[in-house]
Amino acid sequence: MAASTLTEVARLAGVSPATASRVLNGSARKPGKDIADRVRQAAESLGYVPNAQAQGLAKSSSGLIGLIVHDIADPYFAAIARGVQEAAREQRKMVLLATTGGGPAEEREAVAAFAARRADSIVIAGSRSCREEDHDGNTALAAELDRYCRNGGQVAVVGHPVVGATAPEGYHVLRVPNRELADRLATELAGSWDGDFVIVGGPEGLLTSDDRVNGFQEGLARAGRRPAEVLRSAFNRSGGYEAGLELAARIKAGRSAEGAADPKLCIFAVNDVMAIGAAAALRSEGLRIPRDAAIAGFDDIETLRDFRPALSTVRLPLEDIGRLATRATGRGPAAGDAAEDAAPAGIAGEVTLRRSTETAA
Amino acid sequence: MAASTLTEVARLAGVSPATASRVLNGSARKPGKDIADRVRQAAESLGYVPNAQAQGLAKSSSGLIGLIVHDIADPYFAAIARGVQEAAREQRKMVLLATTGGGPAEEREAVAAFAARRADSIVIAGSRSCREEDHDGNTALAAELDRYCRNGGQVAVVGHPVVGATAPEGYHVLRVPNRELADRLATELAGSWDGDFVIVGGPEGLLTSDDRVNGFQEGLARAGRRPAEVLRSAFNRSGGYEAGLELAARIKAGRSAEGAADPKLCIFAVNDVMAIGAAAALRSEGLRIPRDAAIAGFDDIETLRDFRPALSTVRLPLEDIGRLATRATGRGPAAGDAAEDAAPAGIAGEVTLRRSTETAA
DNA sequence: GCTAATTGGGAAAGCGCATTCCCACTGCTT
DNA sequence: AAGCAGTGGGAATGCGCTTTCCCAATTAGC
Question: Does the pLDDT at position A86 exceed 70?
């Protein structure tokens, strides 16, 4: 698309393009008032719209922040995106959105596209995977990020470093204390729950899931409880649903074999949408929460607010995560250090026990 | 940020930049194989990343689609965004995201920012408002869009035209049959519900809300039912919650005054998140759905899947809406016409009655 | 072998803008 | 009156790329 140019404004105002630029963009050199008025009037009458591409080319700064999520309609990513948007607005920058399926190969493509657009910074929000099948993708992604950072770009990764990444200048990791919080959740649940625990985890090798699984096991161990069995499933609602169907069958089988005295199962799903899926599966099998089994999740996504029964979970400040990640990339090394130093204090979650894990007293 | 340039690649390969561009980008003119190999190798060894800003400047096409939503974390907008993302990917374009609070003045700013970036097209997803306080904002937004389209940009607005817009070349409206569908919902509810209806609407003057209110009233009229009272509230969950509190008080007052024989209230909230808010309010007041009152919403947002009781609603294909809007702007007038001709057939919703409006037989 | 047509590479120009440096003018001081 | 310093406007340059047109070389046809 085309529009009026600065050169046309300058010609109409009878000045040079340099002067017109000074008037409209500000400069150490201040054009005289008469000239400035003429320029402004010319811009107004021509309906001048600056060309940000040309500005970016001339200034070597695009004013763009690239954001990579796995699925923008997932409440977890949507909340992070909202935080990124807010922080971007503070910096007067715009957000370029890339939705990938979750694999590092697709993320590499997104990073390359952002690099082509000379995005000033990139925020990567999805979980890291160290599965064998993602090895090549991780290597390619790490190389692409290395190049991007060496060329002056800033990157913030939420949760874990990209597997194989070399942490060049401009590369920030916003640590999320998944392990510690899952440990704490287990501790609190073990304090009130007599029955067995089972964990519904994502695919092994998905680092966020692994952290949460391992943290929960550690909490159980410290509470003198035996390790929970881990069911592996897709890291989404339908993964939770499938695991939930299996658990429902077990609960029913266990009940018919041993009667009502059997201690109930407490299910920890490593994210809320998985917990929601598992709950839906139990319900579809005629089971009630927490009467027949308890369920806890992780994240405290916004839509959980209207979920019944109220789900016990670990609350993560998702918007803050998006905001802090963006700010970490916003002003160069000083800001990067600030966000990383702040992470232990800045990204704090909390265990929130609700009705889904209530024990009948 | 900086990176290797095409000029450097050309120099290393010993050819002109024009030839290097031909090799890397394709052209009618085909460079010889030896030269092409040399260029590709030079690009590889230099880690050449094209500069999309420079490309956009030279080609007068940015490859950007601007998307304006009110809140990316609202499931309605997140679903539309997902559709836009998919269609953008088909067109090999990237999505620039602007989240506004909902007012046309903010939307104008977003449009201006997209215009500065020479976005090839813009999709505006939020509801239109013809309230008096938005008059100036609407005028400014319409003018900005007019200029954008006159400069060659493409716009797709979901639902209604921007108030005051002149429908220039390149301006598309993706009509959503809110009124007809709300009418149909009322008709179906009136067929089974004996009690009174009440509508929880957004602010008067918000066109999507008004359409749904009016359509529902028309359905009631045609079914021989008296008009529903309309409670006006904010067009979000908390607006629904507030209206729900008021209705809960009424239900309780009506029950104590007239006993159990009073026909129950059926609440139609003009979007799902408002319905969810109203339901939460009723529940907080000890009321049960559908035992004490029925509730229906509109949109069938994805997260409704796990809401209990299952909410009656009108299902809109939100992702399709995002996809079609994006495609409407994708290939010039012909595609635009196709989407607008297709709208009556393409954007079809359906009434979905679920447990929240079930009557005890 | 000669001529005409085709093909491919390079030089030049320009997309729209920001910045730097040169020059001219003005005001102040000696 | 002359010289110096400060200020503001313009010309020139360049950011990285694409496309067009000119020219030279090669190929094909007679």
Answer: yes
What pLDDT score was predicted for residue B264? Answer: 82
For A76-97, what is the mean pLDDT? 94
pLDDT in tens, B138-191: 999 999 999 999 888 999 999 999 998 887 888 999 999 999 999 999 999 999
* For residue B257, pLDDT beyond 80: no
Question: How many of the other CB atoms lie within 10 Å of CB of A34?
Answer: 8
* Distances B284 to A208, A306, A360 between C-alpha atoms, Å: 35, 11, 21
Does B334 touch chain A if contact means CB atoms closer than 8 Å? no
Residue B94's DSSP bridge partners are B64
Please state the domain extents for chain A.
6-50, 63-176+320-330, 178-315+349-357
Q: Interface pTM (ipTM) of the complex? A: 0.89
Do the domains A63-176+320-330 and A178-315+349-357 sit in the same CATH topology, yes or no? yes
The residue lying closest to nucleotide C6, measuring its CA against C1', is B29
* Residues (85-104, chain A) with CB within 7 Å of strand D atoms: none
Check whether A262 has a pLDDT greater than 80: no
Answer whether residue B256 shows pLDDT above 70: no
User: DSSP labels for A116-148?
Assistant: HTT-SEEEE-SPPB--GGGHHHHHHHHHHHHHH
Q: Examine the pLDDT at B45 and tell me if it is beyond 60.
A: yes
**Cβ of A143 under 8 Å from any chain B Cβ?**
no
Query: Has domain A178-315+349-357 been given CATH number 3.40.50.2300?
Result: yes
* Residue A245: closest CA among A261, A263, A233: A233
- pLDDT the model gives residue A334: 42
Class (C level, CATH) for A63-176+320-330: alpha beta
Give distance CA A37 / C1' C23 (Å): 24
Q: What would the pLDDT profile of B316-343 be if each residue is shown by its tens digit?
A: 999 999 999 999 997 544 444 444 444 4
Quote the minimal CA–CA distance from B131 to chain A in Å: 27
Task: Categorize the per-residue pLDDT at A178 as very low, low, confident or very high, splitting at 50, 70 and 90.
Answer: very high
Residue B289 backbone class (left: φ over 0; alpha: ψ -120 to 50; beta: rest): beta
**DSSP class of residue B136?**
H
- Residue numbers of A between 82 and 101 with CB closer than 8 Å to B: 82, 85, 94-99
**Closest alpha carbon to B154 in B123, B185, B109, B176:** B123
Q: Give how far Cα A247 sits from Cα of A210, A283, B91, B301, Å.
A: 20, 11, 43, 28
Q: Please report the pLDDT score of residue A109 as a whole number.
A: 92
A112 to B3: CB separation less than 8 angstroms, yes or no: no
Q: Which residue is nearest to nucleotide D9 (CA to C1')?
A: A19
Range B242-245 contact pairs with CB under 8 angstroms and sequence separation of 24 or more = B242/B277, B242/B281, B243/B200, B243/B269, B243/B274, B243/B277, B243/B278, B243/B281, B244/B200, B244/B277, B244/B278, B244/B279, B244/B280, B244/B281, B244/B282, B245/B281, B245/B284, B245/B285
Minimum Cα–Cα distance from A86: chain B residue? B99
* Closest partner CB to B53 (pick from A2, A72, A117): A117
- pLDDT number for residue A280: 95
Distance D28 C1' – B24 CA (angstroms): 30
